[in-house]
TrEMBL record:
Domain spans labelled C1q: 83-216
Pfam families: C1q
Protein name as annotated: Collagen alpha-2(VIII) chain
Coiled-coil stretches: 41-71
SMART domains assigned: C1Q
GO annotations of cellular component type: collagen trimer
Source species, domain of life: Eukaryota
Location of this chain's protein in the cell: Secreted
Keyword Glycosyltransferase found: no
Signal sequence coordinates: 1-19
Keywords: Coiled coil, Collagen, Secreted, Signal
Amino acid sequence: MAIFAFVLSVVMLVSTGLAAVSPTIDEKLQTAMTEVIVNPEKEYECLLFRLEDKLDRMKEKMAEMERELKKKITPLPNPTQAVNASQYAFSAYLSDKNALHTSGSLKYTKTISNVGGAYNEYTGVFTSAVDGVYVFHFHSSVYAYAKHCVLTLFHENNNVTSTYGYDGNGFASFSNTAVIELKNTEVVHVAVTSPFTKSSCYLRGRFTTFSGFKIA
């Protein structure tokens, strides 16, 4: 009985010691696990915050640089407004029908475009509204009826350039272009000026065109 009592007392003593020590062990283990475990979500949030902070600072720096550049650069005039203030261009053809022309100015009555309104479709005359340099182009197509056909571009009453077409058995096409410096109110037009005996021009309407535009 004495031995049993001694063993029982030893067991109770050990149990009491372990009970006293176990809370300390559990606490240290929990602390270690907390330190070891890595939280990916927290790390991502931290990284995202740092990136956003850097981006905000870069935006502020760029805005500051833009303000400094605006102070140093003198704004240029708007080229579109400058061009539109004196823009002139037109394009027209004779008519929807083919017709015989023996002499005189050609009236290109079908206007495709007439920017600035300087071309008169009733007279076939372009009148310069401002001083400048203009490009004019005229093209014609004739039937076999017209053995010889000469068209001339006139600046005022001056012969600038001409085209010549001859078709023995079919169609003939011809064209020319000129760059002319015009003063205000000066006129340009195209006329039939064939010097030959058989000089009537049987022009194909939609294929006979007159165009021009201001370049300077």
